[in-house]
Design brief:
- By secondary structure, the chain is mainly beta.
- The chain is built from two helices and 17 strands.
- It has helices at 122-142, 285-289; strands at residues 2-9, 11-12, 22-23, 62-64, 71-73, 90-91, 97-100, 106-107, 144-173, 182-187, 193-199, 204-211, 217-236, 257-272, 277-282, 296-302, 308-315.
- Strands 9, 10, 13, 14, 15, 16 and 17 form a seven-stranded antiparallel β-sheet that branches. Strands 1-12-11-7-8 form a five-stranded antiparallel β-sheet, with no helix packed on it.
- The two termini are 68 Å apart.
- Residues 56-60 and 111-117 have low confidence and may be disordered.
């Protein structure tokens, strides 16, 4: 990411004669009527009206004279307006920062100097939300009622993903193209830039422009393994769970196939005395087999949400 920083003058309007767009650093007094600049009413200029600061000699931000409230340089020992010592002077407020949106509009940095920030209530609100979620989850897990359940249904399913070694077309960073791939085209995306303005409080503002350095992208074709199908086998209790039978063209040639991820699910359906039905899913065939059809089990039903706690099941 490349970064460019420049310093420009803020602008101000004379409150006495109405002259507009005076420069915040080099024009401390109105050239028309001699009226003093009001630092609290400086503003960011339009893009076309920016004036860069070259080797500007002004050092330090504006501070306010504790006696007459006149804006002075921090380097001053005494106020040039009333002669009072500058000890105990306070910083003149500034406009903070502006950020440029994707549409080119500037956001933030407007209005008068900000009032002292009040403590945000956001952390408290977020804390209460997190606490409410924790309480809900605890209640959902712990608040249950007993029930007698009868095994009414049992089923299983086993799946095997099938991959094929074939030509695929993809787009990625040119440095990430696999060896042996055939590059079809190259392109470099347009850099994305963001600009931020920060009021320095001395009649100038710093503008920082940051731009990404996009990587060259390549469209290419290469032989790779990709999933093309999923073979599935299902059954009920009494049918021994088995994996699907596959007829694959094995090898590493174009068009050859291989087994990929395997998944298996074992489901038991229960009926409660009140007529409600519940399902429990197991990843182990032996655990599933212990639930014979028609057998009864004692279990716990969650009061919140109404789900069955499958870990609570005990044979009666």
């Amino acid at each position: 990411m490349s970064t460019v920083e420049k310093t420009y003058e803020m602008q101000w309007d004379c409150e006495f004669c109405g002259v507009k767009h005076l420069l915040g650093l080099s024009q401390r007094f109105c050239p028309t009527c001699g009226g003093p600049q009001n630092p609290a009413k400086r503003y960011f200029p339009e893009e076309s009206a920016k004036v860069a600061v070259e080797d500007h000699p002004f050092v330090g931000a504006d501070v306010t004279c504790p006696a007459c409230r006149h804006a002075m340089s921090r380097n001053c020992q005494n106020c040039s307006n009333c002669g009072s010592p500058m000890g105990g002077s306070t910083q003149v407020g500034n406009l903070g920062e502006q950020k440029q949106s994707a549409g080119g509009e500037w956001q933030g940095g407007g209005g008068a100097a900000p009032a002292p920030a009040r403590k945000s209530k956001l952390p408290l609100i977020l804390g209460l939300i997190v606490l409410a979620i924790i309480v809900f989850l605890v209640v959902r897990v712990t608040l249950t009622k007993g029930a007698v359940l009868t095994v009414a249904r049992q089923s299983w399913s086993r799946e095997i993903a099938v991959e094929r070694f074939d030509e695929v077309e993809k787009t990625a960073g040119c440095s990430e193209v696999p060896s042996g791939a055939r590059i079809l085209s190259r392109s470099t995306p347009t850099p994305t830039c963001t600009t931020k303005r920060v009021d320095k409080g001395d009649g100038t503002f710093k503008e920082t422009k940051q731009c990404t350095e996009p990587k060259e992208q390549c469209s290419f074709r290469a032989d790779q393994w990709k999933q093309v199908s999923v073979a599935k086998e299902t059954g009920q209790l009494g049918v021994t769970p088995a994996w699907p039978k596959l007829d694959l063209r094995l090898g590493t040639c174009r068009g050859c196939e291989r087994e990929a991820a395997k998944t298996e699910r074992y489901t038991v359906g229960f009926d409660a005395a009140d007529g409600k039905a519940y399902d429990c899913e197991f990843g182990d065939e032996n655990a599933w087999k212990r639930f014979a059809k028609g057998a009864t089990f004692a279990g716990k039903i969650r009061v919140v949400g109404g789900g069955l706690d499958c870990d609570s099941l005990k044979a009666k």
